[in-house]
Structures are given as structure tokens and as C-alpha cells.
Design a protein that fits this description.
By secondary structure, this protein is α/β, with parallel strands linked by helices. It contains six helices and seven strands. Helix 1 packs across helix 6.
């Protein structure tokens, strides 16, 4: 079991539907929070006692800079990567800029962040902590879907990276876990960077999904596929 009390945890995408809920649950568990988002006012409006960083992780080097800044201010025990964007539409209508934005935000920035965090997480392990990184690739990573090819590719790439990284960092005592919740009512589909979302069945309650993700952290899970959210 991972005890979150007193642990210093970085949450990206902290103003999003899932990121904000996970941050609130971590605060309730006694964690010290480092929160990031693109909107300073929304970060303030969370009302959480936390270190706040306003930045755009799509910018080159932003993820590594964030980690270095956070780690220089204190021990970093865990990271929850909850930022991301979505786009819809057929492959024939894909715009290169859309593909690039999806890849950078959903995959490349997470890879950069995780890589940059390894020394800090190694130091936390040496100090007796149980360091972890949690990603949210979503069910789309396992279920290629027409009309969501580029989005799915960006998330599947993240899942593949995490799967390999888990094996490498296991020897370091750093746990890396990917979670793949089914469609959840986060409102993300209504904020697509391109295209219009197709009709979808009612999604999961984001509160329940956030609780399941926190459980994955505290019970030392290493992989949380879609069926685990049933």
C-alpha cells in the first residue's frame, strides 16, 4: 500500500475534470500538491493548498522545466499526468497541425516529463518513499476507432511508452502505471481542437473514475484497463 499522507505529488492538467478531482482526492489523503494548468485563475479557483504553476506543456522544453523547478523545491514522490486534448474527424480531413498538437500534448510532453523526472523519483526512492508516475491513456489506446484515428494513435503511443518504461524503472523502485478509463463525462469531447464528437452513450461519472484512479495509486497497481472501471 502506498501512503499518500505528506507525499509531494505533481498533477498536470489540474484544472481538467479528472485532474481537478484527482487533486482534490490527493489533498484529502494528506498529500502536498504541485498543480499545473494553462489558466492561472482556474488553478486558483480550485481552492487547494498547493504550489501552482501556470504553463503550456505544448511548448518545447516546458515539461522538463516544470519537473526541474518542482524537484528543486522539494522531494517529488509522485506524478499524475492528467493533461491532454482530443480531436475528431476522418483521416482524409486531418490537418497536420491537429496531428502535431495531439501528439505533443497527449504523448511527447508526457514522455518528456517522465524522462526528466527519473532523477527526482530515484532520489525519493533512496529517501524511503514509494515513487510513482500515473498516466491516463484511456480506453482509446486499446480500441482504434474510426473518426478518432489521430487521437487514438497519440494515446496508444503513450500506452506503449509506459508499458516499456515500467520494465525499465521497476529495477529503480519507481512504479509507472497506465489507466484506461472508458468514455467519461468530462466535457472534453465538447472542447475538441478539431472536428465534432460523434454521438456517444452516457459516459462514466468522473467522480467515480477519479476515485478508481486514486485506488490504483494507493493499492500499488501497475495497469488499470477499461474493464477495471466497471
Amino acid at each position: 500500500m502506498t501512503d499518500l499522507a505528506g507525499k509531494r505529488i505533481l498533477v498536470t492538467g489540474a484544472t481538467g475534470a479528472l485532474g481537478s478531482r484527482i487533486a482534490t482526492l490527493l489533498a484529502g489523503a494528506g498529500s502536498q500538491l504541485v498543480l499545473t494548468g494553462r489558466d492561472a485563475q482556474k488553478l486558483q479557483d480550485l481552492g487547494l493548498n498547493a504550489e501552482l504553476f501556470t504553463l503550456d506543456l505544448a511548448q518545447p522544453g516546458a515539461a522538463a522545466s516544470l519537473v526541474h523547478t518542482a524537484a528543486s523545491a522539494g522531494q517529488l514522490d509522485g506524478i499524475v499526468i492528467a493533461h491532454g486534448v482530443v480531436a475528431f474527424g476522418p483521416v482524409a480531413e486531418l490537418d497536420p497541425e491537429t496531428v502535431n498538437t495531439l501528439t505533443v500534448l497527449n504523448q511527447t510532453s508526457a514522455i518528456e516529463l517522465l524522462r526528466a523526472a527519473i532523477p527526482a523519483l530515484q532520489a525519493a526512492k533512496a529517501a524511503g518513499s514509494e515513487p510513482f508516475v500515473l498516466t491516463i491513456s484511456g480506453v482509446i489506446a486499446d480500441m482504434p476507432t474510426a473518426g478518432m484515428a489521430a487521437y487514438g494513435a497519440s494515446k496508444a503511443g503513450l500506452k506503449a511508452f509506459v508499458s516499456a518504461t515500467q520494465r525499465e524503472l521497476r529495477r529503480e523502485g519507481i512504479r509507472v502505471v497506465d489507466t484506461r478509463p472508458p468514455h467519461t463525462e468530462t466535457g472534453l469531447a465538447g472542447r475538441a481542437i478539431a472536428g465534432v464528437a460523434p454521438a456517444m452513450p452516457q459516459g462514466l461519472d468522473p467522480d467515480a473514475v477519479a476515485v478508481r484512479i486514486l485506488t490504483a495509486i494507493t493499492t500499488d497497481e501497475k495497469d488499470v484497463p477499461a474493464e477495471s472501471f466497471a
